[in-house]
Design brief:
Radius of gyration: 27 Å
Helix content: under 10%
Strand content: over 45%
Shape: flat
Number of helices: 0
Length: 313
């Protein structure tokens, strides 16, 4: 339906005796997208361009219908922006000519860009031109003819080649020299196996092994990184307690003894070396102790910009 237009929907109940009856006025009507649709007693009004689910509930049963709001004679254009199959999560897709000129993901009601790299434009038709852009990518112009609802995936090219850290490594974590008197000897150097895999066009996922890591709903042995042209930026999240569930969250928590844990966290900037990647961790290395993982106490700690991380093949 068009923005501002209304349409009366009806609800029919199929009864156990095989008969049907209209229950429109006895039905509870709701919508998943209040900015897109409004509904009252089955009368649906298109408020803004987009789409939403219309739901009718009656006597413990329900049914849904997808409703699209866009000008008459126009269509929905959607798809995924990617780099070599990996989602580009911060792309801007805009219509630069043709019916729908001016639609872009700068206005949420006119187009949508989601964390999965997906986009949707509501209200395009005929010959149009798209401009797709994102930081660290070459802008792309794409001409299309739209005569129906269409799915068009768009690939972007990085403006500069990125480093490729994927592979298997030995990771060594070394506390900064000024921390040697503040941390126990066992916390000064730790070694793990590490696997780095791509998780998106600009992101990697690091999984550690070769040690006894804390498990509490999930295993605390992984962290993420972001690819640059000449380096990789890794983020190791710090401890966060959820006392009700006794859940302790940190990227890396190695169990050194039954009640002793090694916890490094902060920002790591790593650059290529002859054997892999290395850099400085600007953050904190802690020793935490206790038998309840939701209430561990810090018994030793050192914050520095000079902790070292090295990934070696």
């Amino acid at each position: 339906m068009a923005p501002g237009g209304s349409e009366q929907f009806s609800a029919r109940a199929h009864l156990s005796d095989g008969s049907t009856t209209v229950v429109t006025n006895q039905t509870t009507w709701t919508t998943s997208g209040p900015p897109v649709l409004s509904v009252s007693a089955g009368l649906v009004t298109g408020v803004e361009r987009g789409e939403a689910d219309l739901r009718a509930a009656y006597s413990g049963r329900s049914s849904t219908k997808r409703v699209m709001v866009l000008p008459a004679g126009t269509f929905k254009l959607s798809g995924r922006v990617h780099e070599g199959g990996f989602a580009v999560t911060n792309a801007r897709v805009e219509v630069t000519s043709g019916i729908g000129t001016g639609l872009s993901n700068s206005t949420a009601s006119l187009s949508v860009s989601t964390p999965g790299g997906n986009y949707a434009l509501y209200g395009v038709a005929g010959d149009i031109q798209l401009r797709v852009s994102s930081n660290d990518y070459e802008p792309r112009l794409q001409d299309l003819f739209v005569a129906d609802h269409q799915i068009v995936d768009i690939e972007l090219t990085p403006s500069r080649p990125r480093v490729d850290p994927t592979g298997t490594y030995t990771l060594t974590v070394e506390a900064a020299p000024e921390c040697r008197s503040l941390l126990p000897a066992t916390a000064l150097t730790r070694t793990y196996s590490a696997t780095i895999a791509r998780s998106s066009s600009t992101s990697v996922w690091v999984t550690l092994g070769g040690a006894n890591f804390l498990t509490s709903f999930s295993t605390a042995n992984s962290f993420t990184g972001r690819l640059g042209a000449d380096s990789v930026s890794f983020t190791l999240s710090g401890p966060l307690s959820y006392y009700f569930y006794y859940y302790y969250l940190a990227s890396v928590m190695e169990q050194l003894a039954p009640s002793t844990y090694f916890v490094p966290y902060g920002q790591l900037e790593a650059e290529p070396t002859a054997s892999g990647f290395s850099g400085a961790l600007n953050g904190t290395i802690e020793i935490r102790e206790g038998t309840n993982v939701g209430r561990l106490s810090v018994t030793a700690s050192c914050r520095s910009a000079n902790h070292r991380f090295s990934f070696s093949r």
